[in-house]
Each structure stands twice: as C-alpha cells, then as structure tokens.
Design brief:
Elements: E1 10-23, E2 26-39, E3 43-47, H1 54-61, E4 69-74, E5 77-78, H2 84-94, E6 95-98, H3 110-118, H4 127-133, H5 149-161, E7 167-171, H6 179-196, E8 199-204, E9 215-220, E10 223-229
Parallel strand pairs: 3-8, 3-9, 6-7, 7-8
Antiparallel strand pairs: 1-2, 1-4, 4-5, 9-10
Length: about 240
C-alpha cells in the first residue's frame, strides 16, 4: 500500500556541487559533483575525515562560498545566482551557523552576544528565551571569560537559533570540547531539532555522533559516498566516544 503522506519538502537542495581551488598551477578539488538534500525538521550528520570536503560543502550550503560548478536551491530559488547583498539577507533570515570556535565578543555578556543577532532579525526570540533554550538563563550576565568552553559554545548556539532559522549548520561544534562537555552541547542541538523543528546539519569526523542523526552522509575525497538512515536515534548521553 502506498504511503498517502506527501514526501517532506527539501529546504536546501545541492546538485552537482564542485569546488576547485587554484594555487598557481596546482588545482585542488575540494568537492567533486556532490548531490545533497536537507529536509524540513531532520537532523543530518555529514561524516568524514579532515580534508574530505565537509566544511567546503557547509560553507556553500550556507551561502558563505560559491561553487565552481553546480547549484544550491533554497525552496526552489537558486542561491548560486544570487548577488552578495541577496546572500547576506538570506543568511540573516534563514541560516544559523555554529562553528568549532565560538566567535563571541569578549566585551559583551552572553545576553548581549545573542542580542547582536536578535536586533537585526525579523521575528527573533528574545535573548533570554534563546539562552533558556540552551540552559544558560543564569549565565546571561556573564562575560565569555567567566564561562567554560561548553557554556561559550551554548551561547554561540543560542545566538544562532535566536533568529529562528530554517537551517542550522554546525561545523565540528564539539571539536574543541572534552567528551562530557561535548555531550552537553550535542544534547542542546538535539533538543533544538526536536522541540523547535530546526533542520540541523552537523559536520564531524567523530563516527559516534552519527547515531544521533536521521541520516548520515559519509564523505571522502570531495564526494558523498554513502547515505545511511537510522531507524532509531540515540541520545547524546548514549554515545560511546
């Protein structure tokens, strides 16, 4: 019997993405014809070793870089044909970024760091609401130097999700953290995906994180080699690092 439910709509669709960096006479192929869809509300892990093309793909999906060939569509709109001003507006309204390093402003409190985003967003959460979502309500008036690495990363996540993005793109968000703190950060990302419904993509070299995902896409040599679906998602605390 056919499933009567409609197929989920892709928020982002990449087709034939190629990225070539030229250094003198040498060409470095970072991506080699990658196809990828990110669907509404899903949690995706992009898994691969350093240099496999994951970060390049994430930067192109987020409008931070342009491919040498191929296209990225946001709900049918071709972002690879957009100008810089249009891409800036699109990133501001639709995408949240979380990087390995927190990129917080040292002279601002947690609340003020989040407010940098909410002040320029159309329909944001309040900074306090975003900090509560990541479990840092009591640290809102603390400066980054007064917080642990895990707390700083959670402030960065609060800043990314405060504008209510459609897509949250995370580049090695636990890479600078110990195992215990990394699990806390992953719990926060999982909670945001489950409770807010934000489409979430995490790139990592840590295979253990893959068990948290709806889908796992394995990368090597600039290619997406394998897609695996998890019938049951693990919690962050269940991960065996």
């Amino acid at each position: 019997m056919l499933d009567p439910r409609p197929a989920p709509a892709p928020v982002l669709s990449a087709r034939g993405l190629t990225k070539v960096y030229r250094m003198g006479e040498v060409e470095v192929h970072a991506l080699r014809g990658v196809d990828l869809d990110l669907f509404e509300g899903e949690f995706v892990v992009l898994l691969g070793a350093s240099g496999s093309g994951k970060s390049t793909l994430l930067n192109i999906l987020g409008g931070l870089d342009q491919p040498s060939a191929g296209s990225v569509l946001h709900r049918g709109h071709d972002l690879t044909r957009a100008g810089e001003a249009e891409l800036t507006q699109w990133r501001r309204e639709h995408v949240g970024f979380v990087f390995q390093f927190y990129n917080l402003i040292p002279s601002l409190t947690a609340r003020e760091n989040v407010a940098l985003v909410t002040d320029i967003s159309r329909h944001p959460m309040s900074p306090d609401e975003a900090l509560e979502l990541v479990g840092l309500s009591k640290r809102a008036d603390h400066f980054p130097a007064q917080m642990s690495g895990g707390e700083q990363q959670r402030v960065a996540i609060a800043r990314a999700v405060a504008k209510r993005p459609e897509v949250l793109l995370c580049d090695e968000p636990t890479g600078a953290l110990d195992v215990v703190t990394g699990k806390v950060v992953l719990e926060v990302l999982d909670r945001i995906n489950r409770e807010v419904g934000t489409t979430t993509a995490i790139i990592t070299h840590n295979a253990a994180i893959a068990t948290m995902a709806h889908r796992v896409v394995t990368f090597a040599d600039g290619r997406a080699l394998e897609v695996k679906r998890n019938e049951r998602r693990a919690s962050a605390q269940d991960l065996q690092w």
